[in-house]
Design goal:
Blueprint lengths: L1 H11 L1 H17 L6 H85 L6 H4 L18 H4 L14 H8 L3 H10 L4 H12 L5 H8 L10 H4 L3 H22 L3 H7 L2 H18 L4 H4 L4 H13 L7 H7 L9 H7 L6 H10 L3 H10 L8 H12 L14 H24 L9 H24 L20 H15 L36 E3 L2 E3 L6
Antiparallel strand pairs: 1-2
Helix pairs in contact: 2-3, 6-7, 6-8, 7-9, 8-11, 9-11, 11-15, 13-15, 18-19, 19-20, 20-21, 21-22
Pfam family, one: Frigida
Protein name: FRIGIDA-like protein
Keywords: Coiled coil, Developmental protein, Differentiation, Flowering
Length: 546
């Protein structure tokens, strides 16, 4: 603005300057003889023209300056408005997000409350007949349900008071140190085993001596009147052993939530001595087990190792002996944690070698991933080797007059089982990029088609029995024993049209030597060697979790 005012002042002084110049020119003219009127008029017009031009240009510049200042003011207002709009939009978005979050939390809370109420309202002693025929097949094994949210299991403790949501009797049994009642309670509530298992660590905390309670529950694990071979056929004994393992696991979870001093007082020297005595009593019985017969799913070996890990007495036993037991529990989901607790992690390469040498490549792959040893044991190579061995014809010759195709049928069945196990292992460990499953699935379809074709051909070639004529002796008199004829045809109709399935009693198939591991999947049909075990309403299925 100061520059503008100085320019305007100079322009206003132009007239006075011209007048001064005129006086000077008049004086100059008086000293000359020749007049200069014509020249002065030209000069005066020139200067007036310059004055007008400068004033006009100055006016234009002032107008442009005012216009520019107006635009600046308008731009500032637009920016302020936009900034205010952005701030208001952010506030609205945050409010909407908070409302959605609150609504989601409320919905989750309501759903959890409804789920808890429904579990509490369900009778503990409901029989499979009331729930429907399929309910007894839905029960999961005691070692199948994962123990998750260990910290959440300990949250119900407030001022030393335990709040058990659905099973207050569980706390009562632990407070009374009733190990037999605890076994019966778990058996009666096996249909809700997931909820019961989550609450056991909390209930054990209320016991006068939780460690002694768990040790008391181990009574009857090896009944004197039952041999090891017969134990595999006793459904009740299998259920009791799984319950013992579960209780020891729950005690381990409880110990992880306690302070070091509390753990030392709970697992005292006397408790360790008692646990050691039980382990020394069990250990000789493990020598009678066959590592191949158990197929990596031995409850006896698992219980022994869990006993050592829970009560911290593994240092009292030879590490080499413990190392030899790992292949007997390689399919158990707790194997990796047990090995770490027992300090056997460094021995896992040797365990994997043993599994591979015994044809249990799937277990080897699972342990290789669990202990991050895939750089030493290539999963793809192990799986391919497993399939190659499965495709080989068994060397032992079938006894009796078995048809020549029997051996080949067994090989095809073995290949089917191996292919399905490999595909499940690939999917579990996300190895599709390294080992595509499409060729394997095509091979499965081919073998299943061949199996179906052979079955149809066998049924067609099988001779049909002729129906005998009743009481036909030449051209004799017509038979009069109509009742016997009716009974005969009734029996034939019964064979052709079996009794309605719901009229039959519940079937409990006999025990198998092995249980189906989770990594073999549930969507495929396995041969009897990999069958499930049903007994007394339990559905046991061994699992392997990584």
């Amino acid at each position: 603005m100061e520059d503008t005012q100085s320019v305007a002042t100079l322009m206003d002084s132009t007239t006075s300057k011209i007048q001064q110049l005129q006086k000077a020119f008049a004086e100059l003219e008086s000293h000359r003889a020749v007049t200069l009127n014509l020249k002065w008029k030209q000069l005066e017009e020139h200067f007036h023209g310059l004055e007008k031009s400068l004033k006009r240009r100055f006016t234009e510049l002032e107008d442009q300056e005012k216009e520019f200042e107006t635009k600046i003011v308008q731009s500032k207002k637009i920016l302020e408005n936009r900034q205010a709009a952005v701030i208001s939009s952010e506030k609205a978005s945050l409010e909407s997000l908070q409302e959605n979050r609150d609504a989601a939390v409320s919905a989750i809370t309501i759903a959890m409350e409804k789920h808890t109420k429904s579990n509490c309202m369900e009778p503990a002693g409901t029989t499979p007949e009331v729930q429907g025929e399929s309910s007894m097949f839905d029960a999961k094994p005691l070692d199948y349900i994962p123990l998750e949210n260990t910290e959440d299991n300990m949250k119900p403790f407030k001022n030393g008071v335990v709040e058990v949501k659905c099973y207050p009797d569980l706390v009562k049994l632990c407070q009374d140190m009733d190990s037999e009642g605890l076994h019966k309670f778990i058996s009666d509530n096996r249909k809700n085993l997931a909820a019961v298992r989550e609450e056991i660590p909390s209930a054990l905390r209320t016991a006068v001596d939780a460690a002694c309670l768990v040790l008391d529950s181990l009574k009857g694990f090896y009944p004197s009147e039952v041999s090891i071979s017969d134990a595999k056929k006793d459904a009740n004994l299998l259920g009791l052993r799984r319950t013992c393992i579960m209780l020891m696991e729950c005690l381990s979870i409880l110990l992880t939530t306690l302070e070091l001093d509390s753990v030392s007082s709970l697992i005292s020297a006397s408790v360790k001595g008692r646990a050691k005595a039980i382990a020394e009593e069990w250990k000789p019985k493990l020598d009678e087990l066959d590592i191949d017969a158990n197929n990596g799913n031995s409850l006896e070996a698992h219980a022994f190792l869990q006993l050592l890990a829970t009560f911290g007495i593994n240092s009292n036993f030879n590490q080499e002996d413990l190392y030899k037991l790992i292949p007997m529990v390689s399919r158990r989901r707790q194997t990796a944690d047990l090995c770490r607790s027992l300090g056997l992690s460094e021995r896992m390469p040797g365990v994997i070698d043993v599994l591979v040498n015994n044809g249990r490549h799937i277990d080897a792959v699972n342990l290789a991933f669990a202990f991050e040893l895939t750089h030493k044991f290539s999963p793809v190579s192990l799986l391919k080797s497993y399939l190659n061995e499965a495709s080989k014809v068994s060397s032992p010759v079938k006894s009796g007059n078995a048809p020549p195709t029997t051996a080949q049928n067994d090989v095809n069945e073995k290949q089917l089982t191996a292919l399905k196990a490999v595909i499940k292992c690939i999917e579990d460990h996300k190895l599709e990029a390294q080992y595509p499953v499409d060729p394997l699935q095509n091979r499965i379809h081919q073998l299943e088609k061949e199996k179906a074709d052979k079955k149809r051909a066998t049924e067609v070639a099988k001779p049909q029995p002729k129906r005998p004529r009743a009481n036909c002796v030449g051209n004799g008199a017509r038979a009069t024993n109509v009742a016997s004829d009716k009974n005969f045809y009734a029996s034939r109709m019964t064979d052709r049209y079996p009794q309605y399935i719901y009229d039959r009693p519940y079937a409990y198939p006999g025990p198998a030597d092995t249980h189906v591991p989770s990594f073999l999947g549930t969507s495929y049909n396995f041969p009897p060697g990999h069958g499930n075990f049903f007994g007394n309403g339990y559905h046991y299925q061994a699992t392997y979790l990584h």
